[in-house]
Specification:
- This protein has 433 residues and is α/β, with parallel strands linked by helices.
- Helix content is 30%, strand content 25%.
- Strands 4, 14, 15, 16, 17, 18, 19, 20 and 21 form a nine-stranded mixed beta sheet that branches. Strands 5-6-7-8-9-11-12-13 form an eight-stranded parallel β-barrel, surrounded by six helices.
- α8 links the parallel β11 and β12.
- It binds ligand LLP.
Length: 433
């Protein structure tokens, strides 16, 4: 996030945070468009190899909206989608649907049909049942569909257990140790006239700091791919290694650079290709957080403050409804009073939201500049899984998301109005009123 300080105010990509708050209201997500663009470019530039086509696909669950996918397209990235809503967003953003990968452990027939209709590049099969359903649907639609199979490589990534995905009892994919299911799956795919098996997908978790975990994943997936190819005589030409690249939220986080992780991954893949004599044509990676998180922050207006026991509370006009991550994962964030940047951070406070729930805390304990009613608070690095996990809890409306570049702002997502918040509700039937 290109943030600067001027006259005691925080500036985001050349715009005064106070002015943004006054013009667009709070809470509001603010994205520095240039940071998104630079990160996308960095992935596109560094995940390259002479031995295979490297394709980063933006994991849109991190922050799915048309503007993000239009940027992904502009920078040559594909997209990862996991629902009808995300698929439709990619379609309406004008994405090349051939570069879209459709994931999910429980896709509905309706979702699969839409994906077939949109000629989605790859559908990732997560289970035997899905393979059978997709086969039938593709046949009915008279479509040849390229598919990957999600495998669980059983790699333990050091991250919060809710965002680990490749433990043996994970709900995702088929374990590489489950020979019975793999054999069954190979049979379905081989006999299918409609499904075109391309290879495997694995995703070991999110917010991973040790690049070695990705190298380990690469090794396991490649060895497995080779063994599968040999056993079933089914060539593997595409691998999708998922996302998970860690970002810095606070000083405690020390992520490796995007470029370095990509370089390491490419090297590991090239070694495996040589050693195992693999015939990979394309390898996909799916960064979500690494693209969206560092580019976004949330602006809130400071409301009341309260001393409760030993705790000094600062309340803001949003909270767990726009960012559930602290409540759900004990996620940590840094913050500043964007209207008092020159003051020292002299107060130890708990920043809490306005929801009726004690767990509605954005930052449990942090040093902050002194603040007053009406000041603007900036919580940094909220660009991924903040907006996308927002809710209308307590009937708080969804905030908007702004893209800012060169001192100019425009909505990527307009804030939800009170009317929109209530428009789907019906009165009781008149005769029962
Ligand atoms: N590919 C697959 C198949 C995934 O399941 C995920 C994330 C990604 C890619 C993107 O991972 P990333 O690069 O963003 O780490 N809500 C949680 C994160 C859940 C991630 C789920 N899958 C959070 O707020 O930390």
């Amino acid at each position: 996030m290109a943030i600067t300080k001027e006259n005691g105010h925080l500036y985001i990509a050349g715009m005064d945070a106070k002015k943004i708050a006054q013009t667009y209201g709070t809470p509001v997500y603010v994205y520095d468009r240039q940071i998104i663009e630079e990160t996308m470019q960095e992935f596109a530039d560094s995940f390259v190899s002479k031995k295979f086509q490297g394709k980063p696909a933006y994991a849109s669950k991190a922050f799915s909206c048309k503007a993000m996918l239009q940027l992904a397209k502009q920078f040559g990235l594909g997209a990862d989608v996991v629902s009808l809503g995300e698929l439709e967003t990619a379609k309406r953003a004008g994405m090349d649907m051939g570069e879209v990968v459709f994931h999910g452990n429980n896709k509905s027939a309706c979702e699969l049909q839409k994906a077939l209709e949109y000629q989605t590049g790859l559908i990732v099969i997560d289970s035997l049942q899905e393979a059978m359903l997709l086969d039938a649907l593709a046949q009915a639609a008279q479509r040849k569909q390229d598919v990957l199979v999600r495998i669980n490589p059983g790699i333990d990534a050091h991250t919060h257990k809710y965002i680990q995905t490749a433990n043996l009892d994970s709900k995702f994919g088929i374990s590489i140790a489950d020979e019975t299911s793999l054999q069954e799956l190979a049979k379905i795919l081989k006999n299918s006239g409609a499904l075109n098996f391309k290879g495997f997908h694995a995703h070991i978790g999110s917010q991973i700091f040790e690049p070695e975990s990705f190298v380990k994943e690469t090794g396991v997936v490649c060895e497995f791919a080779k063994a599968f190819e040999d056993t079933y005589q089914m060539p593997v030409t595409v691998l999708d290694l998922g996302g998970g690249f860690g970002v810095r939220y606070t000083d405690a986080d020390k992520p490796a650079k995007v470029k370095d992780v990509c370089t390491l991954l490419v090297k590991a893949l090239e070694e495996q290709i040589d050693q195992l004599d693999l015939h990979l044509e394309k390898v996909i990676i799916e960064p979500g957080r690494a693209i969206a998180a560092p580019a976004g922050l949330t602006l809130y207006t400071v409301g009341f403050s309260k001393m409760a026991g030993e705790k000094q509370y600062v309340f803001v006009d949003g909270g767990m409804s726009d960012n559930i991550r602290p409540a759900l994962y004990q996620a940590a964030y840094d913050a500043d009073i964007a209207t008092n940047m020159d003051a020292p951070k002299s107060e130890e406070v708990c920043i809490a939201g306005k929801c009726c729930e004690s767990g509605d805390v954005l930052i449990e304990k942090t040093m902050l500049q002194p603040s007053h009613l009406g000041d603007i608070l900036a919580v940094y690095t909220t660009g991924a899984y903040g907006y996308s996990m927002a809710s209308n809890y307590n009937k708080l409306a969804f905030p908007g998301a702004l893209f800012v570049k060169d001192g100019k702002a425009s909505w990527a997502i307009r804030p939800q109005s009170l009317e929109q918040l209530l428009e789907r509700e019906e009165d009781l039937d008149a005769d029962t009123l």
